[in-house]
């Protein structure tokens, strides 16, 4: 069974995904919210003050990983926002350092 208080919070934030959330919670007990809810963040305009919840950080991290092979301008920006919110997250920290090293190397080559 799902947690009613958690369900009520999620229903206020993510109404379009509530039926799916409820169904999955009933099927698999209680899931992590980020597994079933899509954060309401625009990856092209998101700013640090828009990142309020852990699942927002997860969303930014996951989008950066998804985009790193196609958009090397946006992916580091998303990881930078995620890093500011969760600097000790292992994947976020690793990717932040990786992007920083690539940028440093690129800047050294331009000199």
> Low-confidence spans: pLDDT under 50, at least 5 residues?
none
Give the SSE string.
Answer: HHHHHH
Strand content: under 5%
Helicity, as a percent range:
55-70%
Supply the helix-strand structural class. Answer: mainly alpha
Q: Could you report the average pLDDT, rounded to the nearest whole number?
A: 78
- Can you count the helices? 6
Shape: elongated
Rounded Rg: 17 Å
Largest sheet: none
Oligomer: single chain
> How many β-strand runs?
0
Instruction: For the record, give the distance between the C-alpha atoms at the N and C termini, rounded to a whole number.
Output: 60 Å
Number of domains: 2
Write a short abstract of this structure.
With 111 residues, the chain is mainly alpha-helical. It contains six helices and no strands.
What topology does this entry show?
Blueprint: H1 4-13, H2 18-28, H3 33-36, H4 54-67, H5 74-85, H6 90-110
Helix pairs in contact: 4-5, 5-6
Core attributes:
mainly alpha; 2 domains
Task: Report what the structure shows.
The chain is mainly alpha-helical and 111 residues long. The protein folds into 2 domains: 1-38, no CATH class; 39-111. The protein is 65% helix and 0% strand. It contains 6 helices and no strands. The protein has helices at residues 4-13, 18-28, 33-36, 54-67, 74-85, 90-110. Helix 4 runs antiparallel to helix 5 and helix 5 crosses helix 6. The protein is elongated.
